[in-house]
């Protein structure tokens, strides 16, 4: 039996499991079985599924105005932008709103090329920035790229965490260096100590911009509200999405006044900054701040690192990560272990063929988290 709805495009990967409801860190399937979500729907549910405050904000806004063209001022959009920029360091205070992470990266690439007048973008091996044509050109994995080549020209990829390779690749034709503070889809590889500071210095030395892709790492995921806080540097552009509006589609490209003033051309999004998404975003940002979800991610991440220590080396190559963004690299394929977890009521995701990726909602209870880690230890201990 097909696991697709009639007429659904076959290029979109799907799991046979049919999910019908979510609450907090839990999901329910169409048969009524409850699961603990260890992937947060690929990082979109940091504040939990069906967060009551986000739901209430959506209901209030839906009764007033669903959509408004960006050519008109909107009080809810203005409030969301103020709430968002208040979480970021100065001078990151100019915001372009769109509908997804890949759109936020597309905007960042356009802004960098226009503001600098240069064509070249330097990104990292194992990096993932989206699946639209420009963002895909910055994404490294060949299996994502090959069916759609030729892609956008003037993109280069260098080894992540190799400052010397980055310095050799950046030149006076480089518009921007584009990096994730923690590579998520690429297997959960955090930036090494000092690497982002080196990237900032290398970009600045050549008059290039530094873009940090915080689509997955933002809103408390890594134990800080933004992962860039760990490095002590300020990029020229930050991209955000996923959990930014509590599960409602949104993308944000945040830049400086200097980049905005140098920008030439135009960039628009029909639904970007729509009132519904902005209302949800205000609620999600406030909830994450008030409930100290970043601090919670830091604490629960430390529990994970302690409880995942000492796994059999014959099965596990390495455990790495920061906050509640954890990758377990295996010596074999991750799929059988993910299936074993699912059979016990846990839904984790992969980060490449041999990495189990843990991205639970940041509202997960400590009891549930410890139980999940125990189940994972037991499964991996079998070999």
Could you say which overall geometry the principal axes of the C-alpha atoms support? globular
Assembly type of the chains comes to single chain
H-E string: EEEHHHEHEHHEHEEEHEEEHHHEEHEEEH
The number of distinct helices, counting runs of at least 4 residues, comes to 13
Mean pLDDT: 96
Give the spatial strand order of the biggest sheet: 4-12-11-10-7-5-6
Which blocks of ≥5 consecutive residues have pLDDT under 50? Answer: none
Per DSSP E runs of 2 or more residues, the count of β-strands stands at: 17
Known CATH architecture of the largest domain: 3-Layer(aba) Sandwich
Helix content: 25-40%
Provide a descriptive summary of the structure in words.
It is a single chain. With 383 residues, this protein is of the alpha/beta class. The radius of gyration is 20 Å and the shape is globular. The two termini are 31 Å apart. It folds into 2 domains: 19-50 and 293-381, Aspartate Aminotransferase, domain 1; 52-290, Type I PLP-dependent aspartate aminotransferase-like (Major domain) (Aspartate Aminotransferase, domain 2), CATH 3.40.640.10. The mean pLDDT is 96. The protein has helices at residues 40-43, 52-62, 75-85, 101-116, 133-138, 142-145, 163-169, 195-205, 257-262, 275-290, 293-307, 335-343, 366-381; strands at residues 19-23, 26-29, 34-37, 92-98, 120-124, 155-158, 174-179, 182-183, 189-190, 209-213, 237-240, 251-256, 316-322, 325-330, 346-347, 349-350, 355-358. Strands 4-12-11-10-7-5-6 form a 7-stranded mixed β-sheet, sandwiched between helices. Helix 2 packs antiparallel against helix 10 (275-290), helix 3 (75-85) runs parallel beside helix 10 (275-290) and helix 11 packs parallel to helix 13.
């Amino acid at each position: 039996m097909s696991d697709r709805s009639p007429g659904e495009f076959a290029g979109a990967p799907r799991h046979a499991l049919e999910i019908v409801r979510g609450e907090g860190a839990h999901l329910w399937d169409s048969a009524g079985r409850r699961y603990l979500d260890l992937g947060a729907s690929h990082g979109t549910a940091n504040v939990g599924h069906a967060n009551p405050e986000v739901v209430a904000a959506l209901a209030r806004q839906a009764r007033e105005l669903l959509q408004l063209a960006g050519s008109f001022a909107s009080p809810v959009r203005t409030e969301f932008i103020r709430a968002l920029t208040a979480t970021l360091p100065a001078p990151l205070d100019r915001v372009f709103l769109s509908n997804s992470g890949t759109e936020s990266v597309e905007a960042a690439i356009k802004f960098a090329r226009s503001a600098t007048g240069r064509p070249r973008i330097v990104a990292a091996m194992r990096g993932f920035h989206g699946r639209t044509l420009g963002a895909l050109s910055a994404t490294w994995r060949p299996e994502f790229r090959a069916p759609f080549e030729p892609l956008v020209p003037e993109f280069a990829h260098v080894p992540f965490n190799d400052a010397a390779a980055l310095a050799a690749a950046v030149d006076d034709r480089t518009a921007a260096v584009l990096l994730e503070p923690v590579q998520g889809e690429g297997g959960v590889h955090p930036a090494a100590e000092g690497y982002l500071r080196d990237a900032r210095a290398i970009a600045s030395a050549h008059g290039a911009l530094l873009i940090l892709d915080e689509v997955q790492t933002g809103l408390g995921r890594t134990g800080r509200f933004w992962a860039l806080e760990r490095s002590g540097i300020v990029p020229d552009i930050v991209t955000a999405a996923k959990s930014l509006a509590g599960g409602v589609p949104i993308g944000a490209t945040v830049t400086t006044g200097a980049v905005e003033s140098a920008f030439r051309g135009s960039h628009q999004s029909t639904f970007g900054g729509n009132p519904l998404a902005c209302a949800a975003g205000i609620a999600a940002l406030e909830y994450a701040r008030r409930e100290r979800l970043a601090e919670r991610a830091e604490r629960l991440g430390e529990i994970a690192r302690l409880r995942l220590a000492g796994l059999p080396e014959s099965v596990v190559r390495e455990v790495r990560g920061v906050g509640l963004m954890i990758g377990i690299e295996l010596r074999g394929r991750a799929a059988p272990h993910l299936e074993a977890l699912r059979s016990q009521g846990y839904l984790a995701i992969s980060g490449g063929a041999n990495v189990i990726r843990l991205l639970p909602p940041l509202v997960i209870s400590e009891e549930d988290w410890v139980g999940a880690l125990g189940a994972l230890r037991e499964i991996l201990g079998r070999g």
